[in-house]
Amino acid sequence: MRHVAERMKPWVIVGGGMVGAAAALTIAEQGYRVVLLEPKPESEFDPQSPHDLRISAITADNIAQLNTLGVWEDVIAQRAQRFDELAVRELDGPWVEFAGRGGAPLGYMVENKLLQRVLQSHCKKHPLVHFKTDGFSHLARTESGKRTVHTSADEAIEYSGLLGADGAQSSVRDALGLGTAGASYRERCLLVNVETSSVLPTRTWQVFSDQEVHALLPLTSHHACLIVYANHDEILALSDSKQELDAWLHTRFVPHIGDFTIQSSGSFPLRHQQVLTPWSESLCGGVIGDAAHAVHPLAGQGVNLGFRDVQGIASALKHCSESEAVTAVARALKHRRRENLLMGYGLDAIAKGFRSRHPLVQLCRRSLFHGLSRQPSLRDLIGRIAGGRLLSR
Ligand SMILES: Cc1cc2nc3c(=O)[nH]c(=O)nc-3n(C[C@H](O)[C@H](O)[C@H](O)COP(=O)(O)OP(=O)(O)OC[C@H]3O[C@@H](n4cnc5c(N)ncnc54)[C@H](O)[C@@H]3O)c2cc1C
Fold first, then answer.
1. What is the SS3 assignment for 1?
2. How far is the CA of 375 from the centre of ligand 1 (A)?
3. Residue 4 confidence class, pLDDT cut points 50, 70, 90
4. Conformational region of residue 304, where left means phi above 0, alpha means psi within -120 to 50, and beta covers everything else
5. Ligand 1: distance of its center to the CA of 294 in Å?
6. For the segment 42-66, what is each residue's pLDDT rounded down to a tens digit?
């Protein structure tokens, strides 16, 4: 580790979610001091407790990064489910399957709160990270040119660089004056954790129809998270009645997984949002994770894109001197924007393409599935992208 800590003002990171906490550890590991602001730190995690509804499919490239930070072992020791296969199909069409190579898993299903808890506890133990349970209030710049973050406890912290990792409703993004483009899908994502009577394979899948998308994330051999992306009002109406929800889900999922009982459920509105530029030169600050890009969750890429922002920061800091650090991080985030836009608008096209009843779009869709089912090399390529093996390092 380099010892630049005392010579420079700290980096301030706002938001200790999965992305912010990973960024704090990564920057500290490069020898820089970090102040991490997170007003709602995760409490103890009990591996015997029922699964939480917020689950992420973490891909192989990001697992390698979490391993480098020394946190993955602690996650896997508590609770995570590997998945070896990913399958998609149109309603009533044949399955198109993607698998990891040489017995390697495609990734792991991990509860957000567990990953957050482990990352935050490593931050608290790191000698160069100062973890504060205060929120972000505003930014200021003095006449002498000092840039400061003001916390909810009215403390002013002078910084060398600032990163907002405070989620899709980011206040840091607003304070930095970074605009966004995006729109609501007018859809909700319904998440339902269930216990199954039959054993579940380590396979995640999605079924597309022009009305809705159904998906399954395996959690244990007898537990899964069932996901439905569908019309906003329909999902809200269903959420009101447990009986109706139960019957509605049984019609859709029993043919795939047999009988099940509902343990918990919830739903979220879906929105695609991209920051127009991820960095403010004048305020020496930028945004990462959902603060920079909130994408449709249908390919499980949200937090993985955030972790790739962190990989970009790690690689920038590794190859620059301490005086170049802020410029190098700014450059890395601008570079990341291309992949983030591509993924965001790619998922946008898939989400809209699968809703369309236009005969031409339906024909394209069918041809795509047909082509995929006959092209093992294309399936292999998509499998590697889904597993994060071809994406930026
Ligand atoms: C239904 C659904 C399913 C998903 N499934 C997947 C999946 O399978 N795979 C995947 O990769 N992604 C998935 N995602 C996306 C993933 O959950 C997000 O991309 C991820 O949580 C973003 O992490 P983050 O750290 O950027 O933001 P967040 O998780 O939103 O964390 C932001 C943090 O900032 C803190 N904060 C907020 N305001 C302030 C403030 N003023 N001051 C200080 N701190 C503040 C908050 O307390 C929080 O801890 C899914 C999302 C949804 C909605």
1. coil
2. 35
3. low
4. alpha
5. 9
6. 999 999 999 999 999 998 888 999 9
